[in-house]
Write a structure and sequence with these properties.
- It is a single chain.
- By secondary structure, the protein is an alpha+beta fold.
- The strands form seven sheets. The protein has a seven-stranded antiparallel sheet, with no helix packed on it. Strands 4-3-5 form a three-stranded antiparallel sheet, with no helix packed on it.
- The chain has 27 helices and 21 strands.
- The two termini are 49 Å apart.
- The protein is 57% helix and 11% strand.
Length: 949
Amino acid sequence: MDPWTTLKVAFSNADSTRRRFARLRPEAADPLAEVRTILDLPGPVTLPAEALKLLGSAWASLQQQLDIADAQLSTQPGSAFKSLFRIVEPARTLLTLTRQEHDKVLQEDAERRAALDACMESLEEAKRHIQFVLDRGCEAPDLVARNVADVEEVFPQFNAVQLVEVKQALDGFVSDFLRPLRESVTRAAALKRSEPRNVPEDIARKSRRLLGAVKAAVKDSEVDEARAAVEAYAQFVADLLLRVERGQVVELPARPDPREALDGLKLQLRDVVDYPPEYASPAVLAHQKAVQVAWNEVLVCIDLQDKAERDLQHSTSGDEMAQHFAGLMLVEAMQDVQKALSALKQALSQARDVLAAHDAAMRRYYAALKKLMPRVTFAEALPLQEDGVDTPWKVQRVAFDKALAAVKAAVDPPKRDYGTGNQRLIDLKKAIDALSTARSTVYLADLDEATDVTHGSARQAQVLVERLAKTPGLIAEMKPDQQLRLLRTMRTQLCFCRSCAQGFDPQEFKDNGGRCPNLLVDGVTDCNSTDVELPTICANRDCLREGRPTPGNPCPACSGEDWQVVGSLRPTLRGGKPNPIRDLLVTRAKVLAEMKLTPEFEAFDQKKRRETKTALQKDQLFAKARGSWTTWVKNNDFEKIEAFYNRAIQLQCRILGHDQKDLSCQRGDTVHTFPDAPVKARLHTPDPPEPEKDGYCEFGFPTFIVINTTSNQFGSFKEQVETILHENAHAFQAMLARKIMAKAPFDEEDREELLAHPELGLQASLFLENSLGYITTNSIQDDDVDFKLFARAYRHEPMEEHAWATGTAVSRSLLAPPLVESFMSSDTLRSRIWFVKEVSREHGCTVTLHERHGICPDEWEGDQPGDKLLTLERIRKDHDPFSATVRILEIVDEYRLQLDLDTRDYDPLVMLEFDPDDPKHPVLNKGTDPTKIAGESIRLVLHEWVQDL
């Protein structure tokens, strides 16, 4: 049948057309719904009137056409579908145009908000200067006060360009009027305090008149008149002092340099002020602003103190009174700095308390959210309706939507209430649990049928898995025993009769002349059907062609007349021949990729990891090996290295429970004994070297862990600890699998005891199934999609999930550096931070850290180090401090990381050296090092923020 005839036949069926209509309708309805939502947005993000009119008219026309199509569907499905088809593309185009207009409005609003924030900062600075004048007993400058008082009320009327002009005007008021007037007020206040007490009334009256002139000039915003009035007042006070208190010297208070005090606070200040605003609550933002305001005030006061110091230095040494007044101004300025510093410290202390609590709640929230996100994705993928009919889980999906909205309401900007968000996440998890349970009831009957030991089959299980895999996360939501049943069925139940719906033994099938050997339901009648599922190949080992040759129907490739059943889950057979059940391997990988350790075993294993860490920490040989590893490796001291491996293995074996003694195994003609533990280390030096291979656990139990001495990682103590713990976890798994099979040295009693173990029983069965169908990242290499699937399946299959968790978690906790929480206190205010020893000056620079970075490719679940965002801080470019956002290109070793930053145009490092012969100038400049870049206390910051719901 040609395509056109096929299409006409398909659309001649009204029900089929209606189903197609239902599937296509969202392609038009969803864009139109989003357009309507954007058009109805209130407030500052409302589209301009002209755009609203044009877009609204286009929306109304398309919506009317959609309504007509909906109305036609029941009686004229063909016409309805054609009408719907014609409006899909226009609806998408309209959505694109509407989004563009909306994005433009959002950009303009963002620019206006930024300009408004800048205006408010300038306004706050102006108000602070005015308040300073008021605090010194003067009236506010009229000109400035009038312009400042009500300006905030008219801000809403201004656009971004106008707000920039307002800011420029405010900055002009500050620089041209308020700062000079503040200096005059400060000097007048200092002069007033220096006047002698108990002077005659006529002198006091003159003093009040002169001081009043200063205040009047300040009130009139007359900068020059204010300065002149201060000079006149200063001359009066000078004459008075010369008559009454000649020879008076101002004693400067012995106080620490405020600039040094401020430098000591800068790291704390940066931690508070630079806290990402997108993660800050309104309370945090308020404290950030208070700290920034107090910081700015300190800087203003320090500028005034600097000016006072310069005036004192420039005063004529013979002019006693000039020096006296300069000293008075410096004392006044120093007191202002101290007040400002005290206020800054108080604001900083309050901010850090609030920030610490907020940040701790935020980190708990995002850690919990990251763990929950795969389940959120699963829940969001479950529809409320399918083909226009409510799904069996609709009630639970609606409850999930409400729980999700409650989390977002608490945490989304601007609230950022992470404390409440953490409570809402608990409710969200419960809603997902209920939704998952409701969804699972739909496939339970299919699961039972597909995995029934008699009536189930590998192909039925495969069909079910492929169907479930279409819903993201659904396989991950299955219970571990359900996943086990699917995996086991796809591996073992390869022979199935479609007639009697029962599996069969392939040899019995062969003996029965190629017919089903089963009995029917009556228990008497032979099935004898040839309608069977049976993966077979030619038995000729040089042929292995897929098929079932017989004496009457020989193999067309080699004329062989015998066949065999394929039971091996491999992509290819001998000589690269295609395996007829390769697709089962791919489907099994879809299950393995979604697997986790059972909750009971995970709790057990976490406890064992902690115990292993503690035991190694206390072990003297571990401490010695850690300090001597580089020397041992350099000197090829394999005896000491092997002794350390075996010590670590024995400790871990004792803790995990594979601690049987006096076992033995045979390798070739050699019998190996295991008197202390069932696992030993064996060093191997391959020729030629194999630098990419680390080590492996040999098959069997007891067994050897083989360590490759030519590995690139052999010199890394952390990597070797991780390898030995990882491989010994595989040995533990092999012990559990051997118990399940009741193989020596274990028996049926051991098997029954293990299966009944609440923490180990189910996980042991999963380990066994995994070992019988183990896959690697390169199990499939001829298809890119399959390669990615198998890489994920390898990482999450039970054996590797457990081994990676054990090796990585324990080695990191033992040997990776602790998280740097903050530089000046124990409060966690920043992400992970490392101090940098040096940075190379090249394209793709290398940073060398003072401590181990602890980063490895499998450190983060689902991520690579290159996915992480970092900041390299306090490097120098054009003589100024600079920060650069970077990503990791390569992990060079435990201390070095290569970053995607070109530092060739950054400042070269100035080489300084201590001069013991010149204590007044103790540092010698030895030129520059063009291979490294300059910087002060360089640090690398890892930002671990995650995306919101």
